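Internal ticket - ligand job 360, flavin-adenine dinucleotide:
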Amino acid sequence: MSKQVIVVGSGIIGASIAYQLAKSGAEVTVLEKSSPASGASSKSFGWINAKAAETKSYYRLRRNAIYAYLELCENLNMDTAVKWDGSLWWENEGQELMDQASIMDDYGYEAKVIDAAQFTELEPNVANPPEECIFGRIEGAADGAEMVRLLLIEASKNGANVIAGCEVLDFLRDGDQIIGVETNLGAMHADNVVVATGAWSQDVLERAGVNLPMDNKTGVIVHTLPVAPVINHLIMSPDIHFRQDKSGRIILGEIFSGGGLNEATSESPVDFAQKMLERLKNRLPAITDLTVDRIMVGKRPVPLDGFPAVGVANGLSGLYMAVMHSGITLAPLIGQLVSQEIIEGQLSDLLIDFRPARFG
Ligand SMILES: Cc1cc2nc3c(=O)[nH]c(=O)nc-3n(C[C@H](O)[C@H](O)[C@H](O)COP(=O)(O)OP(=O)(O)OC[C@H]3O[C@@H](n4cnc5c(N)ncnc54)[C@H](O)[C@@H]3O)c2cc1C
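stdout (structure tokens):
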């Protein structure tokens, strides 16, 4: 008999897990309190990369995630969601950039340092080329909302049901076994419940008595109105990140290392977006018609130590969690691994350092 699995949350992580589980024969129900992709997944910069990995095992997870993306793009038509442009990254400069390049080299990552002349050949419209930057040629970008849409269509084709407007309020248990959920629409039973509720996960898991400390980070993404093709790669400069999507919109992301929206001083997102646009205009002086279309403020889901939390909740069988930042990069791989672990009981080595048990 096929396993019944409830997936809570329909961001990119829940959608990818639902797709893989349904494809493997599970009876899947996705419960979403709002609408699919209404959380961080639609407010993401969408950079697919293995660069920003602080440890070897996290690098291994992220590098394998890029393989999983390529495999997903071979099996399904993801053309409207994914673009493999490569990235040009110089958020740090000088010795720091060289040190980062040497770590990537040790890991065997497909990235290399290029100089200003090579940069200008790749990006003739970007002003002030850096003396050196790291060219990550295997990297790309995904539109999180479109990924969710496509993955949920495939999940549904494989028999999954997606219920929007259904909020999980509590968990049903039989001793140490989770056997379902209590929702605003009533109780629902399952063999396994997967919590993929992004930045809400600490609160959701608390209802089952499970501890997942989180330090979520607010982030701002700005979309411009479409312009003619002007850049060819993801550009990760020291003061602004930007890329152009298939429709011509330029997607702007604030830099990771400080300079974000200052909630403490109640900085207006509109003022902040204008600041981001000014930085973009300095980088693209030839483009005179750059106009802000949308400002999106999202919450990055971040377990307290910064690494993913994926696996069975400590002390409870039947309850599984998949909570992480860099979920746009990791989703296709996490979907595969979680499905294998739940359906086949086959534990993945790739997840060894990312088990929720580390939080006790
Ligand atoms: C500004 C910004 C930039 C980012 N840039 C990148 C990047 O460049 N590269 C990258 O890889 N990652 C990036 N990320 C991170 C990435 O977007 C997230 O890791 C990813 O989207 C998380 O997906 P998720 O499915 O876990 O969560 P979400 O997309 O937030 O989905 C969680 C869902 O759970 C639902 N939910 C919550 N509680 C309940 C409940 N009780 N019952 C039912 N449903 C519930 C919510 O409504 C929501 O739809 C960025 C994030 C932000 C905010």
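Auto-summary: Residues 4-45+145-214+304-359 form a domain with the FAD/NAD(P)-binding domain fold (CATH 3.50.50.60). The mean pLDDT is 95.
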